[in-house]
Amino acid sequence: MMQEDRNSQTKGGAGRARRPSALLRLVVVFAAAVIGGFAWFVTQLRSEEQKPARRADGIVVLTGGSSRVSDALDLLSEGYGKRLLISGVHPSSGTSDILRSLPESSRSLLLCCVDLDRSAVNTRSNATETRRWVKERGFHTLIVVTSNYHMPRAAVELTHALPDVDLIFYPVVSEAWREEPWWSNANGLRLVLSEYAKYVAAEVRVHLADLGLELTAPDNNDDASSEGPRRAATVSAN
Asked: Alpha carbon 58 to chain centroid distance?
């Protein structure tokens, strides 16, 4: 009887030993997936700007980062698209406010060929408003302009919202990004880590939506932690 009790205790101890081992394996696999995903993510962040290889029906720029609007206006002036949508303009910003921030050469473009979206407050609603604009205009190809670190997440949202539209991505690279590697300072590291977390969340939400499990997102500015509150669309030298 005592022998049986000892055997039972031995088996119970072995079972308990195996459980932590299985949990450890799960932790290792999860950590490897996170690290591997992050490594892939940072390889997608362009360090140099490159003009689109072809023209499109329209151009959309997602406000929130330095030089996005000015780069989009440059593409419009060079004939890369027929019209430009500036998505995420602050509701209090009028056309005159934006005109004052533009160089003289771009002001005529704003009056003739630019549409302003004041409804979008985050990347998901950028995609929703862009889809509405594309359908109203009857466009089939679109150049997407946003910051390089924001482009992977923007691509997820816009590809999901516009599955039948040919998207051409133009990542904007700021001077600060060129001059100092993101991993060499706390702000750059925090920005990229935050953007990676938001990218993963967007991927999960989109995949669940494809399975019929639509998740509602909070109606706020999802770029706030990295770029501050959404302001009026202004331009600055790149």
From this structure: 19
